[in-house]
Protein 1
Amino acid sequence: MLHISLWKRVLILIVVVIGLVFAAPNIFYNRVEGHNDAVAAAAKGQALTPDQQAARAGWPDWLPSDIVNLGLDLRGGAQLLAEVNVDEVYKARVDALWPEFRKALAAERGTLGSIRRLNADPGVLRIQIGNADQIAEAQKIAETLNNPVSSLTGVGQKTLAITTQGNQLIVQLSDAEKAATDDRTMQQSLEIVRRRIDAAGTREPTIVREGSDRILIQVPGASSAQEIKQLIGTTAKLTFNSVIGTSSNPNEAVGSDQEILPSADQKGLYYILDSVPVVTGEDLTDARPDTDQNGYPAVAFRFNASAARTFGDYTQNNIGKPFAIVLDKKVISAPTIQSHIAGGSGIITGRFTVKEATDLALLLRAGALPASMNFLEERTIGPELGADSIAAGKMAAAVGAVLVVVFMIASYGTFGVFASLALGINIALIFAIMSAIGGTLTLPGIAGIVLTMGTAVDANVLVFERIREELRNQQKAKAARAIELGYERAMSAIIDANVTTFLTAVILFVLGAGPVRGFAVTFLIGIITSVFTAIWVTRLFVSLWFARRRPRELVL
Amino acid sequence: MAFRLKLVPEKTNFDFFKHQVATFGFSVVMVLASIVLVLTMGLNLGIDFRGGTTIRTEADQTEPVDIGAYRSAIAPLGLGDVLITQVYDPNFRADQKVVTIRIQAQDGQEAISPETQAKVLDSLKTVNKDIKIVATESIGPKVSGELIWTAIWSVLAAVAAILVYIWLRFEWQFSVGAVAALIHDVTVTVGIFALFQIKFDLSIIAALLTILGYSINDTVVVFDRLRENLVKYKKMPLREVMNLSVNETLSRTVMTSGTTLLALISLLVLGGDVIRNFVFAMTWGVIVGTYSSVYVAKNIVLFIGLDRNKEKKDPSEKFFDKTDVATD
């Protein structure tokens, strides 16, 4: 056991050297970070400023440049946990079905009788037909509008669940379609959140889906969660609707295909609109801040080809009539159509400030969120607090390390030196692995590393104590034999002790959230690396030392 | 001869069962007291588990913080239960005054609204115009409710995983002993949090799980030696084998707890106030965990008794049996 074959020695050394090399960039954190930012900017095709070029030159390209990400608690920044109201989409989908169903059923009015939509829960379409005995026929017609689900998991299932109750047809989305819709809603929401935050231009935000309907957003360097919330929280659902009339009564009774919406800037003014929009913001291909003919801030937009045609036809047929530009259920302006707008571009005016126009353009460009969000959790950590935490963590780690080293050397002499060297390598390996896997170092993560320092020596202590015992038990035992036996006999305790610790760390990681997970990651890596350094690295040191010194008697 | 620091003499022969009744009784009393404390005083649950908002403010001033002024500045906002505490830390500058303000979850909203937060800051500025908000955390009742369950589940899952692992590697009696020690450690740690009303939040759960890992680590080392000695000294009474095993591993236990405590104490003193509670839980847990692996885990195993010879029918003859012991 004491003798380690050459290839094993080489392998251990290679692992240690690779570890040290990959941990090294963390020592030059700011420099490497500046370099990486400049490289990322260059990769995006931006021209580099002289500052960025200097930053890029600050770290050689050929050296590893992965560094540990600093968590928000160390860097400062904002975190939000948003819940997407996926159910809202069902309602919109089902509402959009009604004109289609009405048309199909009305074609058979002769047999079915009158057709009426009844009030129902959101996401449910209840249609009453005049002749109750023809309900089976109505269902048959309805089923012709039912399509198969277009998702992998929903193969063989239909999008709609159509049932009957007396003389009523009840239409809602099938479970398979709901699941598929939820998934699409989440994908779309993630993408839109990402685009909106990217457009605001910050360092690498983290935007991930959590669970079935949540999105976790972390933006390092953001000064407050509010800022991000305002940016992503606005739904920015833009539609262009025909105006039927205006009113001062918000509760005025309107037709079933109409809705009444307030004016954004004129208090007490309400517009009665056709609830089916002519075109929607989803058809926009571009939006940018502009000025109107009077020099006031406005937003210029452009539609895609099909919407441009629809919009062109609509304007041609409705010259002289007003149409409403509706943003998030408010009429932001209702200009009169002056002429046929061909080509699909136009301008939105609405007494904006320059900032409002810029923000609106950004929101329109990024597209509408398919559903609204609730914010379940918000955290903001100021950069100063983060810097204080790093400083405190570094200090504590340094003092802790010195104390542990002194204690180990005082207790085990030369062997304590080996254990301390292994401890240093262990910490370097933790940083190397964290950097390589893109792990995030949090404040509890620093605590995890400090705790690892305390426990990492455990495997060494087990071995050393065992060697001592072997030396005592067999007075005549040769030093080499005692060391061998020490490693051999301590092994089962080392394995059992570390496997159980590993189990709890895995549970911490799987079930933990946020900072707990950060702690679990460093702790898990620490367990793996400490077993490696304790078993192999110290043994390598011991065997090299032994080969040189050949001590007749071992003092431990 | 080189100098060697030896906290534990080379050969010890403590009888760890001598005060069995006293130590075990002490543990039982501690566990019961902890349960009573948690039930009567309750835990000072942080916003992770209760929902609500904490705001950390910082002001540059040399004069002491007037909590009353903060309170009366915020009172008119009608935010319900507001808890204001000053934070002390040896690392702070002399003119750095830090305060945390905890506001209960507001009815009908998940996270605190931007308007409320701005109003709080505005009100505080009447106390000291330089007050800054350096961190805010706002957690809705929905998430906090889920976090409680996740926390309970993770502790239970960790205990179950350890139970199964020890059972597979050793004998069921060992796993019962180990788990009893774990429950002891967790309960006593939670009890301390109830006694001193230290804020109990998600990070404390992480600390509890780490304590589980640490404590079991200690226990397993003792068990491992016990298993080895059971094979070696087939005729020695169980109680003595246990004593021998603890004595043989004592220097290791003291060394490891020592280095871990050194590291934790430097973190406790120098690591900053943000993680102080978390580190406190771990430091306390290491002490309790070390105690429990010496005084709790194996007492339970002794109490249940080990079947050292599964083939033997008559238990009175078991120490004279020549067949293999029932350990692997």
Protein 2
Amino acid sequence: MARITAGVASSHIPALGAASDLDKTQEDYWRPAFAGYEWTKRWEAEQRPDVVVLVYNDHASAFDMRIIPTFAIGCAEAFQPADEGWGPRPVPVVKGHPDLAWHIAQSCILDEFDMTIINEMDVDHGLTVPLTMMFGKPAEWPCRVIPLAVNVVTYPPPSGNRCWALGEAIARAVASFEEDLNVQIWGTGGMSHQLQGPRAGLINQEWDNRFIDGLVGSSDALRSIPHIEYLRETGSEGIEMVMWLIMRGALGRETRLLHRHYHVPASNTAVGHVVLEPVGDAPDVPASDTIEANSPAAQDLIS
Amino acid sequence: MTVPRDIHAYLGAFDDIPGTRVFTAKRARQGYQLNQFAMSLMKPDNRERWRADERAYLDQWPLSDDQKQAVLDRDYNRLLDLGGNIYFLSKIFSTDGKSFLLAVSTMSGMSLEDYQAMMIAGGRSPEGMRSIKEGR
């Protein structure tokens, strides 16, 4: 059976991708930001996940304002790096895992999460920068990746509570996939940053670190943080941290901290990075209480 | 976990954050064509037509006169007020060859050098910037 073995969260700052692409990671300004990922690179090389479910937001690359899906799952065979205006990043093509992606989509829909299914899209820095930070610059990415795009641009974005619950539904979906796969879930984006208006440049280190602390252990207090608190305390784009809660929800009731890293400055955004694992053999998520998720006939249709 | 939420109170609170324009449905509606215009600059052909004659290119889009003028002026705070969203508007300053850092600094009213220095020193403190009404 497939199983979620770990969760990883990280900011997905475009300038970090550019620093890697241009081999500037050892410059004085960038070195401390990259140093916090060295542990994770070594750990990922040992873990060798088969699939990463990578939660991120598109930055006006694949989606414009014509269609704004709240939760969209990439079911394609492959996803090309997007051209964000300077040409595509020189990184490998992202290979998907359509069987698992479709399975998660079906399972989540029966679990009353109304996923948007995406069969063609390019993936921008929101997805490719975290891959760079965890895997460096390989000739091809060492695992399959299922992109899960979340709207955190047009209001309202999903609530933190909804994101946490989606993570639980993803964990249930993965656990019911028959192939033996080592799956990780990553939540990307954030931490504190504001890229617009006279308040631009806001950074709240104290709040960010408290948020990281809250991901560890058994508390689910983070799921009740309202949008307005993210906006007031962490800047308008700090709302991206709700995506970390999808990762956290998928790890179940209790997590153990494996690694954490926090650094300012890096461009306009605080660099936050954390690696967690579920306590126990598998994520201990509550059973679904939906009708279809408890219907053997409905579940037979997706297996 | 789910608590009843008053949508008016939810939206109203966004107006209480100093120096911040939240991309609500009202702004999304007002800025739809503006943001789609900005997105059109993702295509090289469109960028060429835009560079050749900005005004003529803009006139092909059903934007208000205020929106057109703010685009020509590169007045990003005004564009946010008129329904622009920074991720879409970034296509305009990218086409100009300007960085995110530079564009963001112009919105903050600081010089690029001062803004950069503030970020290197740890960024803008939230102290006094959380709520207009409560002054905290």
